[in-house]
């Protein structure tokens, strides 16, 4: 059985790590380079670095910051925000990223997924999907959750897999920052219907929530931000508890 991954997420705005609730009310969480170094040393399996305002502000991910973060870590590192071309990805990978995450640009131009996979391989391409449950249907949102689409989460996820993406990072906007647990019902459906890894995001507030998303949600990895940034959960403690509960993790 493949080990389950624990992934701290560094949401970046104006060069700082930030964290909000339901995608708004952002507060400062520290220097991203320092945090990345701490996480790499404390047992994180991977890192995700998202320049959360890059698409909204129509600018590119901070490649220089990516370079400095990558200098400090020895674990896989995914970068997202404002990526819309093969050239964007090339620059980020050259600056030290192991994988890239695309979101709004993939919805607007699904062929981009195919193009990136053809150039860099599936293992490099993560498609992030932000969705909100509205009247019992999960609807995809873009631009940091600000733009509603007509896409159904599960239909879009299937298309993403068919186009060759290596992983899906699913964030429940309903759960984001609430610390009430992950959207395990939706995660279970994604994990059951698809053959590529699903990363759970949005809602982590306790060690039990991580256990639940691996057992009930069948997620392959769990991503969190504030519980790690503000030291509410230490990664080593989390992994030891998961191990005790029979969940395969790397210690």
What's a concise summary of this model?
Its EC number is 4.3.2.10. Keywords: Amino-acid biosynthesis, Cytoplasm, Histidine biosynthesis, Lyase. The protein is α/β, with parallel strands linked by helices and 251 residues long.
Question: Strands, helices and their partners?
Answer:
Blueprint: E1 5-13, E2 16-21, E3 24-30, H1 32-41, E4 47-51, H2 63-72, E5 77-80, H3 86-94, E6 99-102, H4 104-108, H5 111-120, E7 125-134, E8 137-142, E9 147-152, H6 153-162, E10 167-172, H7 184-193, E11 198-201, H8 207-215, E12 221-224, H9 226-229, H10 235-244
Parallel strand pairs: 1-4, 1-12, 4-5, 5-6, 6-7, 7-10, 10-11, 11-12
Antiparallel strand pairs: 1-2, 2-3, 7-8, 8-9
Describe the structure.
One of its GO terms (biological process) is L-histidine biosynthetic process. It is found in: Cytoplasm. Its main location: cytoplasm. It is an enzyme of class 4 (lyase). One of its GO terms (molecular function) is lyase activity. The chain is an alpha/beta fold and about 250 residues long. It has one domain: Aldolase class I (TIM Barrel, Alpha-Beta Barrel). The protein is about 35% helix and about 30% strand. The protein is built from ten helices and twelve strands. The chain has an eight-stranded parallel barrel with strand order 1-4-5-6-7-10-11-12, surrounded by six helices. Helix 1 runs parallel beside helix 2. The radius of gyration is 16 Å and the shape is globular.
What is the 3D form?
globular
* Rg estimate, integer Å: 16 Å
Question: Main β-sheet, in a few words?
Answer: 8 strands, parallel, barrel
CATH topology description = TIM Barrel
Q: Which bin fits the share of residues in helices?
A: 25-40%
Provide the number of structural domains: 1
The structure class reads alpha/beta
CATH class: Alpha Beta
- CATH A-level architecture: Alpha-Beta Barrel
Uncertain segments: none
Q: Tell me the span between the first and last alpha carbons.
A: 15 Å
CATH superfamily, called what? Answer: Aldolase class I
The total count of helices amounts to: 10
How much of the sequence is in beta strands? 25-35%
Function: IGPS catalyzes the conversion of PRFAR and glutamine to IGP, AICAR and glutamate. The HisF subunit catalyzes the cyclization activity that produces IGP and AICAR from PRFAR using the ammonia provided by the HisH subunit.
Keywords: Amino-acid biosynthesis, Cytoplasm, Histidine biosynthesis, Lyase
Protein name: Imidazole glycerol phosphate synthase subunit HisF
GO cellular component, one term: cytoplasm
